[in-house]
Design brief:
The protein is mostly helical and 878 residues long. Among the domains are: 2-56, no CATH class; 304-382, Alpha Horseshoe (Serine Threonine Protein Phosphatase 5, Tetratricopeptide repeat), CATH 1.25.40.10; 420-456 and 513-552, no CATH class; 461-497, no CATH class; 653-755, Tetratricopeptide repeat domain (Serine Threonine Protein Phosphatase 5, Tetratricopeptide repeat), CATH 1.25.40; 767-876, Alpha-Beta Plaits, CATH 3.30.70. It has a 4-stranded antiparallel sheet. A hairpin with a 4-residue loop joins β2 and β3 (811-819). α17 (325-338) runs antiparallel to α18.
Length: 878
């Protein structure tokens, strides 16, 4: 093994360092004296230092340079954004560099293991730490750099390790630890190389914190310490970008100028010159003209052809800053046209146009279109991507609502016209559409002809008609010899007539013999077969057909008009919300809400809109704000909006009440499960009385109904459930209540089937009065009104109240409860009959009235067998 190592070592020395054979022999003697890894001494130290440096460490360092060069080459320089201090560690690039990184670890480990006492061990450990960093193994990298700092006796190596540790902490998002390392290094005496790296890393640190003044200060120190061939021009350019971003144009200009003096590559030089024009101090009008001439010079330079989109974009920015918005728009559009292979740059121009139309002109339609084009070109890694996407979505929703109002209002206006005016108007629309279609078709034909001429090479009339004497030319140009023209003709035929089989009379035949075509089309095809030319529909026929289509789409029916008005009402509501909360266009928000209130005074949205207007005017026009608040509180006192207007802390207090009600609900539910129904009902009743409008109150109401189902029987339980289903606004509670109701119905039906219908002959108990009627007659309201009116005058049993109850799909009941015994109930029945309380509309509607005991009422309700009970009633009550 020793012999092999000697041989390899001599080989490396001969290849990398053309030394004399005598030196090689001396090296061999040194090797023999100090080849043991643990051996110390002057000779051993020389051997280990030379071998470590010019073998393993040298090769590992070369591989690390390859990795860092690959990362730098893969970095896309986006000059519209602040350039990065260090190349981004792109994981997709790193994945392709894994073999090199593994080789670095292997070579550095050899230097560490075999040459433990060489002075290159610390450098090898630093290479290991950097490799771990690039692989994303931050914790291992941190430990490695810390090890060097603690164990190294070389201050320069320790400082290099700490600078790399600082960068690792930054990328690991441990900025506090990075700051601690920075503070320590600031107090240390660093050599030139470490001082340069320290300030570069410090600038990187402040960029991550977006602390721009401190970043600029760090770059002011780093740039002059960086050699030209190591990126001084780039650092000065970043410094110029930073000063420009901070509004310090003079400092920015000086930094860009220093970048140009630092031997930049052509692209960096071009953008530095372009940026200098942006921050040039315009002292007079002549300077402004000079800048424009400078831009024109850049445009004429052939070397800048691929940058024309960027030049136009920056010229647009310049014009925008001077207030020349028309010129700015023109140059942004030229930038878009010039941008062929640079979608990122094209997106910047689209975004600049979008922001001009949005912020300056308030033209939301054009702004939305330009934002949409921006998103089609903007890469997702751009910082503004999410903001642009959100802005586009907001404007898209805004335009949807504006279009809804415009369309529905137009349709509603049209249906108010007399038939002649309406037909004239629709025909005019159709004619305009046809003229536009003809114009577009003409453009397409001209483009197609131009394409044919280019492909076939037509130059003369003789060429077009195949009259050239040369046979070869004739075959190339005459229609049936030219494959390009044949292809075009075939495509046109298929477009007009479909892909047909080769057969006679093809114009009048098809697979389905045109059974479903209209009479006009059939006549046209027959005429086409006779004349051997396809006949297009007559213009008047097309106008009449399209006019009829549009006429049939108009909302003539009352229901359709109601839907159109509802769409307009909802659109104004959404417009107000968008203007207020998304666009901060408060004046337009007020206008949208005011229009809604004026056009739809009975709108269900009125309480919320009044509250929105109260907030919009508050602090600006307090008198008007108070007017909206008073209307809200007086007309809609029980709404949340009125309560919040009176008490801004209402929602917060309501949340506290909700917590309290949830605790009460949990206690009541526990009592319900244990059968303590009276205690549960009492707790629920008290809390509902104190807090009837809380968002959680419906949960208590439903539990209270479930308690009543255990104590009062199925009929009141089912009635209360039906009432709850109609009144609650909580969809989940409504669904659960419906499940409870259906389960109760099913239970009652099964019980009736098992037990049969047997009524109890116990009359010494509370009774109910019943009026039975058919559901389809819809008599609930008039019957209840008539009975309640009678009850006000009936003194024998006060506080009587009529309630409606659905018995089954065919029958419902109005019942009055309750009477203490059969005698009082029968007396009430006779009084009702004598007073002829039943309204006229109930006559001849199979309405019947009777009384029933509490137990029998439950049996009747469960069995639904009303005929059996009427027989029982006639036997025992008449």
């Amino acid at each position: 093994m020793a012999f092999i190592h000697i041989k390899n070592t001599i080989g490396l020395l001969n290849v990398r360092f053309p030394l004399s054979r005598a030196f090689a022999c001396c090296y061999i003697l040194l090797f023999l004296a100090g080849c043991a890894a643990e051996r110390k001494g002057p000779v051993a130290n020389i051997y280990h230092n030379i071998t470590a440096r010019y073998n393993a460490y040298f090769l590992a360092k070369e591989k690390m340079e390859e990795v860092e060069d690959a990362l730098a080459d893969a970095q896309e320089r986006n000059f519209n954004q602040l350039l990065p201090i260090f190349p981004e560690v792109d994981t997709s690039v790193i994945s392709t560099l894994q073999p090199q990184l593994e080789d670095i670890l292997k070579k550095a480990s050899i230097a560490i293991d075999r040459h433990k006492h060489s002075k290159w061990v610390d450098d090898s450990y630093i290479l290991v730490g950097k490799t771990r960093f690039y692989k994303g193994e931050y914790e291992h990298a941190v430990e490695t750099f810390k090890y060097v700092n603690v164990n190294s006796e070389d201050d320069d190596a320790r400082h290099r390790a700490l600078i790399n540790l600082m960068r690792t902490f930054i990328d690991y998002n441990e900025l506090n630890n990075a700051k601690a390392v920075s503070d320590y290094l600031r107090k240390e005496k660093l050599n030139k190389e470490n001082l340069k790296k320290y300030y570069q890393t410090l600038a990187y640190f402040y960029r991550q914190r977006e602390d721009w003044p401190y970043m600029a200060a760090a770059l002011e120190e780093a740039a002059p310490r960086t050699p030209k061939d190591e990126g001084r021009a780039r650092l000065y350019y970043i410094l110029g970008q930073l000063y420009q971003q901070m509004g310090l144009d003079q400092q920015a200009y000086e930094s860009f100028e220093k970048s140009l003096k630092s031997n930049p590559d052509y692209e960096l030089s071009f953008f530095a010159r372009l940026s200098m024009a942006q921050v040039f101090d315009l002292a007079q009008e002549a300077d402004e003209k000079e800048i424009r001439r400078y831009f024109q010079k850049l445009l004429k330079d052939k070397k800048n052809r691929e940058y024309r989109d960027k030049i136009y974009y920056e010229l647009g920015n310049f014009e925008a800053r001077q207030g020349n918005l028309d010129a700015a728009i023109e140059n942004y559009k030229k930038s878009i046209q010039a941008s062929v292979n640079n979608p990122r740059q094209k997106s910047y121009a689209y975004q600049a146009l979008a922001e001009l139309y949005y912020d300056t002109f308030n033209d939301y339609r054009l702004a939305e279109a330009y934002y949409d084009s921006t998103l089609q070109n903007l890469p997702p890694d751009e910082p503004d991507y999410a903001q642009v996407q959100q802005r586009r979505e907001v404007l898209g929703e805004l335009l949807t609502q504006l279009n809804t109002v415009q369309l529905q209002d137009s349709l509603l206006r049209l249906v108010q016209l007399d038939s002649l005016s309406l037909r004239t108007y629709l025909e005019e629309i159709v004619r305009e559409e046809m003229e536009e279609e003809a114009r577009q078709a003409k453009l397409i034909d001209e483009q197609r002809m131009n394409q044919v001429n280019v492909r076939t090479g037509f130059n003369t009339v003789r060429d077009k008609f195949g009259l050239t004497d040369n046979l070869q030319n004739r075959e190339a140009t005459w229609y049936f010899y030219n494959q390009n023209l044949l292809g075009i003709g075939q495509a046109e035929f298929i477009k007009n007539w479909g892909d047909r089989p080769l057969q006679d009379n093809w114009r009048i035949l098809s697979g389905d013999q045109r059974e479903n075509t209209n009479v006009i089309t059939q006549a046209m095809e027959q005429e086409s077969a006779l004349t051997d030319t396809p006949i297009q529909p007559d213009e008047d026929e097309i106008i009449a057909s399209r006019t009829l289509e549009y006429y049939n789409e108009l909302p003539f029916a009352e229901e359709e008009q109601d839907l159109a008005l509802a769409a307009i009402e909802n659109a104004y509501y959404k417009l107000g919300k968008i203007y207020n909360y998304d666009l901060q266009e408060y004046g337009r928000a007020i206008a949208a809400f005011d229009t809604l209130l004026q056009r739809f005074p009975e709108s269900e949205l009125r309480p919320e809109v009044l509250y929105e207007l109260y907030l919009l005017h508050k602090g600006k026009d307090d008198a008007l704000a108070e007017q909206y608040k008073n209307e809200l509180v007086q007309q809609y006192p029980n709404t949340t909006f009125a309560k919040v207007a009176l008490n801004p802390n209402y929602l917060e207090e309501s949340d506290q009440i909700t917590v309290f009600l949830k605790e009460a609900y949990a206690q009541a539910y526990e009592w319900y499960n244990s059968g303590a129904y009276t205690r549960a009902d009492s707790l629920l009743r008290v809390n509902l009385k104190e807090h009837p409008e809380n968002s959680f109150s419906d949960h208590l109401r439903l539990l209270q109904i479930m308690v009543k189902g255990k104590t009062d029987g199925a009929a009141p339980y089912q009635y209360e459930l039906n009432q709850f289903i109609e009144q609650t606004t909580d969809d989940q509670l409504r669904a659960y209540a419906q499940e409870l109701l259906q389960a109760s119905y099913k239970f009652a039906e099964n019980k009736a089937k098992i037990e049969g219908t047997r009524f109890i002959e116990d009359f010494n108990q509370p009774h109910y009065f019943i009026i039975k009627y058919e559901n389809e007659k819809k008599l609930a309201d008039p019957l209840i009104a008539a009975v309640d009116s009678f009850n006000l005058k009936y003194e024998q049993t006060p506080d009587l109240k009529a309630t409606n109850l659905r018995l089954n799909d065919q029958t419902s009941m109005v019942y009055v409860n309750q009477f203490p015994d059969r005698s009082s109930a029968v007396q009430y029945l006779r009084a009702i009959n004598r007073s002829k309380v039943i309204p006229e509309e109930a006559k001849n509607a199979n309405v019947q009235s009777f009384v029933v005991s509490r137990d029998n009422f439950q049996i009747l309700y469960d069995s639904k067998d009303i005929d059996s009970y009427l027989k029982f009633f006639n036997k025992f009550y008449n």
